[in-house]
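fold-stage: in
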Amino acid sequence: MRLHRRHRALSALLAIGASAAVVLAPTVAHGATDLAVVLEERTGIHEPGAVVAFRTPDCPADTLGWRVTNFDGVVVGSGTDVAAAATRSLPAGVATTPGIYRLTVQCGAATGSTRLVRSAGPATPDPFFSFAVAGNAPDVVRTFSALGGGSYRQDLQWQAVEKTAGRFDFTPIDARVDRWIRDAGVPPLFVLDYGNVAHTGGSMTPPDMAIPAQRAAWQRFVTTTVQHLRERYPDADLSYEVWNEWNNFHGRFPSTPEAYLPLAEVTFHAIRSADPSARVVGPGVNAVSQKERDWMDRWFAAGGAQWVDAISVHPYSHPWAPEQCVNGTGCIEATLAALHAQSASHPSASGSPAPIWITEVGWPATGVTGVGEADLAAYLVRTHVLAAQNGVERVYTFELNGGTTGARTFGLVQDTPTGFEPRVAAAAYLTMQRTLAGMHVTGGSTTGSVRVVEFSSADEQRHVRVIWQNTDRFTDQQVAVPLPSNGTLVDPFGASKPVTPTKGVLQMTAKWSPRYLVWQD
């Protein structure tokens, strides 16, 4: 992840118009901070029928008041609980419709709140829907699974496993990775990256492939690491990304693809020799602005694709929407279309076109490029749909969990002292994952600003059209969508209703946040 702002003039943001440029203020994780409201379900995600149980550790009184509001702020339940119990539960019928809710509790003069998600059902893992994660606590893994994560990405830094030259210690890595691979069966994407004080003079300084001692030390790190992980997880689906954002942070080396490729070639051969079944992924660079796109053009031209099994990019474009191209800065949609075309004409290590993996993408909640809750939800879904339409094989959202302040406010769920609090984007992501997992794109259309992308199941029996508009977050647009039979319209947070077409067409509205039209043959 880049920690600096993309170098874009503020005037560009102002020039694109108020309807497209408004950046909503981020929503704080809790309403008031003087009363902790702790959900027993620490992920904050509740399946149908699951009881919403909560505690208020700082409330000594037996009686407390509570209310539940939906995404629109409408009260869907309220009451007074007089039970003298440590754990209390919402009554039957409250917050049962799929969606995101806020539970607010009052104890005397103190008030606190937390958000929760009611899902429409469990999610089935699919590697297309993957995450970068922070930490490995059981709650992280459970939240990952609740959202249908299919693969996870983590750094495996040279300095972390070889603190003393020639002595490798994987104990800390094993403790973290066991929980994902051995216990949960989640396929990993490891990022082999950064320097080593003992060999390169700095923990962030890359090895110089022109210096034999540094080349040999890096090869030894890669070979030892890959062999260790294959021996420890003999049946796992293992993938390795070669470095992280060379064109963004690279120590003393030039940020050029020409400087990166010697490292990529050496690493490719070391991985292939140590574990022929492992995937090699790269270059893992930012790839949206014109300068970044030029970097990728040179990488392809210099033969970079021959050293990978999958092409990885980080198409960050915040605060803009994925379809919103700004002069000189590009956009996610155009980037993916260009990469898809380039990969077709530049063979990978297998001799065939390499699939594209987005190994980081997201929007922060804070800072000049931060976006609001509703925009984050809409942009992530739209990015996944556009990625699928352009043949992307995996998308690793950056990131699953994170804080509410500082540089890393990208998380779909926010870290709290007692678990995780889901953001609006978590509810939207879960709806998307449950609706589209295991499906493939079969068509799409653009009419003005209205987008329609069609997916079908592997047996071609279940179909979904994803519909949205990208002009104005506040104004819906009428659209006629083909619908061959009765179907179901699913809203961004999972609530659904039956719909009936007239002469094979459904008249509906296209909104800023995608909705899903589902039917069966």
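fold-stage: in (second)
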Amino acid sequence: MVFGTDGNTLFAGTSAGEILRWDTGDPTALHTLSPLRGHSKQVDSLAVSPKRGLLASASVDGQVRLWKATGTTPVATLRAAPYTSDSFGPIRPVHRIAFDSAGGLLAAPAEEPKKKDPLASSDDLALWTLDDPRAPRQVVAADKGVSSGGTRCSDSVTSMAFASKSKRIVASCGGGWKTWIYTYGTDAVLPGAQNTINGSHGGVALFVPGNAEQLLKATDRGVQVWDLSNGAQPGAVGFIPPAPGTGGQLSLAMSGKRLLLAYQGVGMNWLRDLDLRHLRSNPLATTVAPDMFTGQDIALSPDGKLLADAEVYKQGKETYANLFLRSTASPKQKLGMIEVNNGVGALAYSPTKPLLAVSDYNGLVASNPKPQVVRLYDIADPRHPRHLSTIKTTGYGLGFSPDGSSLVMNEAAKGDTKAARPTAGPLVHSWDVTDPAHPSASWSVRLPTGTDYAQFAFRPDGKLFALYDDTGTLRLWDVRRDRLVGPPVKVSIGRLDGPLAFSPDGTRLALIAPSGDYDRRPEVWDVSDPDSPTRQFYMPAASAFYSLAFTPDGKTLAVVRASAGIDLWDAEPQHVIADLCNAVGDPISEQDWKKYLPDRPYQPPCQ
């Protein structure tokens, strides 16, 4: 139902395809007007143009009709998406069509043509200008839409709305939402922010009146409030483009008073100078990066003075990669080069000495012409890196202990990996590198059969070791005298999909965890009590995340999001708690408090 702009005429769609009308000028004596006829199926959505005197109606078969609000004959007929129940259940459509505040634009869902799956329900945006209501002009055609680059809704659209003072459009689809922005100057529609809420039944999505940067989304878990001031990732305090390449890694370090960020881009490595106070990033240098298999890592030295990154070169028809050392003060200049035979699989700087560990392997097994090894280099003079020793194993991940005495690496699963039937899981192996010219095997942990890979991290004080494998198990060991002590504390989280990162104070552990059947999300766990780790908070889900790291002050968490860029999140627990309290209020009432804690004064967490 919807009221006309005169405030007196009430319209209501029916299952028979009619639009009933009443004059409510006298609420005590409603006057029935003649119905509007033209639809052959149920009318599921109605919208009134604020300034053009138009009524738009949509039926479940995808037919959209435009009417003069005072007339009984449609002035135009348009085609939109038919309505199908979304994947979360039979949510009835409520406002699948919408006018902008000036009444010159009409938005509706437009399905992708020629769907391979006739039962699929993912809608594009269709948009018409109404300079002449009798001949609406479609800006985003249903057969072209804005479907490239992941801009389609994730499910059937159940509501659509414009922001009151901008041309930003939001669609509620399934449990999530999707936004677009229309620009008059270019007569184009640009994809905006989106979010999918797994396992949540969706409802109406609306902008806060007068504020295009705040979105209200109704779900079966309550009304959510989203901050869209950062359009690339709502809720994040910052965003850094361009999109990293598949599997892109990042590295953070302080160089004097500068915060530096290095990361792998799409065919390009980047070094940026971050200013978190003003949420700006200044590109310092770019280099041509290898593919995701030949160059899989990038690293800044602990003091932020050196950057190690892989760069491609060609020899005849073949493409190879070398590892270069650069000064972050003049990053376009190469100081020294380290030759690799296969590729750069992983990198690690020692935190206590001028030592660099390099895993020489290519992610494509057939592209490793020589044995895969880990090499240690003395980089006291980065212009002339000196080879110290070689460990004959494949290091799928490298990391030094905080005191620099041990180098830990992942080694391959044992057995016939080509037949995908290893007889044992991967080996996490520690090497004593007190004398890096003569490394010696120290402790090792063999993961169970069925485990393909794992990620690990040391707590900054070196007294806790975290190991997270792809079966979804997080293990925490005490470390004494460079050895793992006793059985680990085990926590079942869900399938691993990225690295681990401790906060600088060692009380929090960031990781990438599953969210639903297909998506992933960054999570932060409280490990201040390693015997009882607890999930502290998590960020919105996406299809994939590749890497994450805390800033040196622990206040910000940088996360590499697939096909997007790097999101910067406020990681201070007190700020996160305050935001949650503002959104949901106190989770326990005074009555419930007295019921469960009768001997304690009422002290809810949000007060």
